[in-house]
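Q: How would the structure tokens look for this protein?
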Amino acid sequence: MHRFADLVDQMNTRLGAVLKWFALLMVLIQFGIVIGRYVFGVNSIVAQESVLYLHAALFMLAAGYTLLVDKHVRVDIFYAGVNRRIQRRIDIFGHLFLLLPSMAALAWWSWASVRNSWKILEGPISVGGIEAVFLLKSLIPLFCILIALQSIAILIRLFAEGSE
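A: Here is the predicted structure in token form.
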């Protein structure tokens, strides 16, 4: 079980290391769009949509890494003022009864849309844009899988911590 948790951690760490460059790439492309539009009077729908695709990929695929490094949103009203044993119980409850069911529901309810998008190879958002909305929609189940795997890895460690 610990080996599985380590593999998930390594996967999300490597993914996070790659995806951090998407932020810089987004800034550079957006800068190019602004210079192109206001200095040269040139506009590109593909360039504009590429920023959207990079933004979506960055936030959807790096969510597992964010959970791994414990930088996700947490309601500290209940969490901050209690000892580690209670924090562990809150974490277990949150993963088992909130996070994992939410990811399962999101994956379930989005699957038809993703499947249909792949079936027709759904085209661009805007005329002349990137012809790969099916790839963009595929980020939703990937997000769910990465979050669920990281949640399971964290649960493995939380249960091991409790048995020590």
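Residues 157 and 163 are 10 Å apart (CA to CA).

The helical segments are 2-38, 45-61, 63-68, 76-79, 84-119, 133-162.

Upvote if useful.
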